[in-house]
Design brief:
mainly alpha
Length: about 300
């Protein structure tokens, strides 16, 4: 029976819209500065368009490759497939592709711009560590990311940061030869250092906006998991187990998967980042507290429209 109470998180929707608007605005400023510096319009469009298409259509493939994961069939992972299918029915979602990563780190993530092309991935470490109920809570969390479309927004938002980072690196490597023109034209527009500083500012702002959105979207996905499964305590138990196990994972394994930290249910090095503005996730204690409030409301027969702290 489908869970009709699983709806959009209006707070998350507003934050995603604001993030994309602000990122779009600073990106327009960056493009304007590049044009003023004499950069070729065709070059900018080709490079920007190519990078956007690359991220939009290959992000999940690149993520799976980075994790050493592969898609699995129902015959290869019958229990995981059955769990995902059951949760999708509860959440009224199309079933995404299912992947498994041979990795000791207990984690899971979801990727994909479009719902029908999305993929959910669990590591062998998390499947060995958690009970069926706890793993169900984790996978419901990942499906909530797909339902809320925040995975798509995070993927597109990272595109802006990638462009700014590329401009900064290009400027330092090639001495600011953006337009390829002679030095006589330097007085006609902003210098290379101005372009580099603007690009750096765009990158920093993109990073801050993405971090803020990333933290809030974890609360929203925790809430989604609580609604889909009806057992917030199972996800709380899973998060505590994952947190307690991370310390036993070799540091080189954690560092090798650091690029996907924002997409994991529990990022590597999270304990060191508690209270840090660079953390991609909210503190574990706050997530557990929010899930406890969801649990209390479910037991009392109320809804789950509990406000969460960003």
């Amino acid at each position: 029976m489908r869970n009709k109470s699983f709806g959009r998180d209006t707070g998350l929707q507003a934050r995603m819209l604001l993030t994309m608007f602000l990122l779009g605005a600073v990106y327009v400023v960056l493009i304007g500065v590049l044009f003023a510096a004499g950069a070729s319009g065709v070059t900018i469009i080709v490079i920007a368009g190519g990078l956007f298409l690359l991220q939009a259509f290959t992000s999940e493939k690149l993520a799976l490759r980075a994790m050493g994961a592969r898609e699995v069939s129902p015959q290869e992972a019958p229990e995981l497939h059955a769990m995902i299918e059951r949760l999708c029915i509860q959440a009224d979602l199309p079933k995404p592709r299912v992947a498994v990563a041979q990795n000791r780190m207990p984690n899971a993530f979801a990727m994909g711009i479009r719902k029908k092309d999305s993929v959910v991935c669990a590591t062998t470490g998390i499947m060995e560590l958690l009970s069926p109920a706890e793993l169900e809570g984790v996978m419901a969390h990942e499906l909530s990311h797909i339902a809320n479309r925040d995975v798509a927004v995070m993927t597109m938002a990272s595109f802006f940061a990638s462009i700014a980072s590329m401009v900064v690196q290009f400027g330092f490597l090639f001495g600011g030869g953006f337009g390829g023109g002679s030095s006589d034209s330097d007085d006609d527009g902003p210098g290379a250092m101005v372009v580099i500083l603007v690009s750096l500012g765009v990158y920093v702002l993109s990073f801050v906006l993405m971090q803020a959105l990333s933290r809030y979207r974890e609360y929203a996905a925790d809430r989604g998991s609580a609604i889909i499964t009806g057992r917030p305590s199972a996800l709380s138990s899973a998060l505590l187990k994952i947190s307690g196990t991370m310390d036993r994972i070799p540091q080189q394994d954690l560092r090798s998967n650091g690029e996907l930290a924002a997409f994991f249910i529990f990022p590597p090095g999270a304990k060191k980042a508690v209270g840090n503005i660079f953390s991609t996730h909210p503190p574990l204690e706050k997530r557990i507290a929010a899930l406890s409030r969801f649990e209390a409301q479910l037991q009392s027969g109320g809804g789950t429209g509990v406000a969460v702290a960003a």
